[in-house]
Amino acid sequence: MTTKEASFQADGPSAGVKLMAKLGNGAIAGVTGVSIIFPLDMVKTRLQNQKPVGGKMPYSGGIDCFRQILRGEGVRGLYRGLVPNLAGVTPEKAIKLAVNDIMRGVLAQRAGTSPERLPVMYGALAGATAGLCQVIATNPMEIVKIQMQVAATNPVAVGTGAAAMAGPPRVTAMGIVRDLGLRGLYKGTTATLLRDVPFSLLFFPLQALFAQKIQDRMYGEGKPATLCVLAGSTVAGVFAAAAVTPADVIKTRLQSSSQPSPPYRNMTDCARRILQSEGPMAFFKGTVPR
């Protein structure tokens, strides 16, 4: 056995190898998770984007929305926008996990502790930084996905006469990218930041905190087991997702329009008009499927 091999066995994989393994796991988990829950995301987007028609909402709730999509567009309708989402989830997860891990390592060294025992405030700072950086990949993916998800509900897609007989026009991811251009792909970035930064700020420290608490209670002190990490992530995800739903609603409204003249001037105008026409509860549309 060489000195290098003995050193590797003694010290274990390097930090770079561990990070690459985590990024690979994150990418696989992201693709798998998105594929499984995408119908829920479709329902969430339709609920968030719906507006009163004749004083009545098109969908009475999540189950009604699911049934209407299935009845009117078939099973494939539940998966509109899946491909661009799968294409974007790998770089999104890679950026988020890498930045969070690097920041937690740096802050743990500064605090004189391990990343698993990082104080909540430092964990929040690491998470917020990760959320800030991931928007580079998230925003283009989200806007293409959302416009594909709502394409069948746009007035221009309904049509009349021969257009109605032919059905809604085919909307493709590449067509949306060409129409929007580079600048258009980052429409609603402020709203995306307002969603992703607070989400990561809440999720990462809460996930680490809950996972460690569950580990300590169930198995005693030590690095959280897989089951504890899963349970901690679930609880943290529920809290974080619910907290940022208002920002997600605003983001969906801003990014769903493919018209040359957008219906909202900016994020503030969007929030004000939602509040005036639909009330405060409109900011929590899609909370359950989210």
TL;DR of this structure?
The protein has twelve helices and no strands. It is mainly α and 290 residues long.
Q: Keyphrases for this structure?
A:
single chain, about 290 residues, 12 helices, globular
Protein architecture, described:
The protein has 12 helices and no strands. Helix 4 runs antiparallel to helix 5 (120-149) and helix 5 crosses helix 9 (189-218). The protein is mostly helical and 290 residues long. It has helices at 3-11, 15-49, 62-77, 82-111, 120-149, 155-158, 161-166, 173-184, 189-218, 226-243, 245-256, 267-278.
Order of helices and strands: HHHHHHHHHHHH
Number of helices: 12
Rounded to an integer in angstroms, the radius of gyration calculated over CA atoms is 22 Å
Largest beta-sheet characterization: none
Low-confidence stretches: 4-10, 157-166
Shape: globular
Question: Span from first to last CA?
Answer: 53 Å
Write the layout of secondary structure elements.
Layout: H1 3-11, H2 15-49, H3 62-77, H4 82-111, H5 120-149, H6 155-158, H7 161-166, H8 173-184, H9 189-218, H10 226-243, H11 245-256, H12 267-278
Helix pairs in contact: 2-3, 2-4, 4-5, 5-9, 9-10, 9-11, 11-12
